[in-house]
Design brief:
With 330 residues, the chain is of the alpha/beta class. It folds into 2 domains: 217 residues, Alpha-Beta Complex (Spore Coat Polysaccharide Biosynthesis Protein SpsA, Chain A), CATH 3.90.550; 81 residues, no CATH class. Helix content is 47%, strand content 18%. It is built from 15 helices and 9 strands. Strands 1, 2, 3, 4, 5, 6, 7, 8 and 9 form a 9-stranded mixed beta sheet that branches. It starts with 11 loop residues before the first strand and ends with a helix.
Length: 330
Amino acid sequence: MDKSHQTSNPLVSVIISTYNRANLLGRAMNSVLNQSYQNFELLIVDAASIDETRKVVNTFSDSRIKYLKFEERIRKSKAINEAVGVMKGDYLTILDDDDELFPQMLQEEVNALHNTPNNIGFVFGKAKVLRNGKIFTFPRRIYRKKADFYKAQLHSTALSLWGTLIKKACFKNVGLLNEELVLGEDWEFMLRLLKQYDYKYVSSPVYKANYHDSSNISHLSLNLIKNYSERIRSYKIFLNAHLDEIQNSKPILAKFYFRIARNLYNLHKLRSSGKFFRLTLLTKPLNFRPLLWLLILEFTKNSLVRYQLSQRLLNKIENSNFGWFKKIFA
């Protein structure tokens, strides 16, 4: 048993990474301060904000709040890793600066995780996701078997850091967030966590995710996220790190090949893009999407005008409301 099981009132570290969100940060902080469970520290990691973030933090006169300010812009993964390095809690949870914790979150999850054996590494609850005026529930599905959750996480984001309370000891075994990734860093971390640890689950909503704009540090920076070379690099890092597991599932491997191919197309690297579309088709033959894209490649490969026309059309499709149609080209 680790030391967190030897106390009836374990300290929880709540980490908020922020960048230029002074108008929203106070709400996130209040959602922590208003918790029914009060034995926590609140670490605010500021990735070189140039707005009034410091002023907002200073309006809270609470000794449990610690403010870490960086002079240069850093990625979300590094911000969280820095906070993990100085945290004093037995457990930790991560809150985005535009999101909120429901008041009972810490109490319910501490109760669930407290006095569990060392093979139980974390507990999670439901997140209510507010996007475009609609409310969704995440995770979309709760898997009773860890192997099923793990496979779903390989395929896509089945479980995230939203509303998740993690034992500090887990980080010694699975490592920190991968700072090389420009997207999916929490997805990849949760995959490693699922691989080594079992979990508990609370059925009530514990986290509220609010989608606003793309300036949140959780999106890294929109320029990096839209940097197709960096996206390809992230996918390849993920593939190399988990290749043995991914190769056991043809649909998952095909999905990664397809993502790489799409980003290569956006870079106008049509020959390399075609290679990965063909790999997608070879890996999962009954898949019409790479076939469609190979036809698009054939149409655009010898004409810059046709390529540019295809990009404009694809952008319109991706920004449309036809979800099923977008999935064909995404």
